[in-house]
Specification:
Dna Ligase, domain 1; three-stranded mixed β-sheet; 42% helix
Length: 148
């Protein structure tokens, strides 16, 4: 598994370049939202961004935040998760290597994990079924140690 880790300045430069290439309108507010997202190394909701901006006295409408999120999804900077809680959860992809998720049904805690044996098993199963995997997402639901 190879991964390319970028620092926040590299991520922002790449974001700005893609905004220009896609002829999206650049605004300092969009840049500030992208900066918050690149600084967040866990899973987050759009509401988390709204709350953080509000708590810091910064202006960013919910509509603007959702537009930036959609732009970043379209450009490949974010992926969307639905962990069966009725809310979309996001994480940025530029500094994260592949991983899977445990989700606690009681408290909603999300635990990321990577297991080489599991990855090999998934590849072997795909090969046996003559299936070419482009990507996958594994979500395992249960109870975390704090709720157990």
């Amino acid at each position: 598994m190879t991964e390319k880790i970028l620092n926040i300045n590299q991520e922002l430069d790449l974001f700005r370049k893609k905004v220009s290439e896609k002829n999206y309108r650049y605004t300092p507010q969009r840049d500030e939202i992208a900066q918050w997202i690149f600084n967040e190394h866990g899973h987050f909701s759009a509401e988390d961004i709204v709350l953080q901006f509000k708590n810091k006295g910064k202006k960013a409408s919910q509509a603007t935040i959702y537009r930036v999120i959609q732009m970043m999804i379209d450009m490949g900077f974010l992926i969307v998760h639905d962990f069966d809680k009725g809310q979309k959860i996001y994480e940025h992809t530029t500094d994260h290597s592949h991983h899977d998720h445990f989700i606690c049904d009681k408290c909603g805690k999300i635990i990321e994990f990577y297991d080489k044996n599991l990855e090999n098993l998934k590849n072997d199963i795909a090969k046996r079924h003559e299936f070419v995997m482009d990507r996958h997402s594994l979500r395992i639901f249960g109870t975390c140690k704090n709720c157990n």
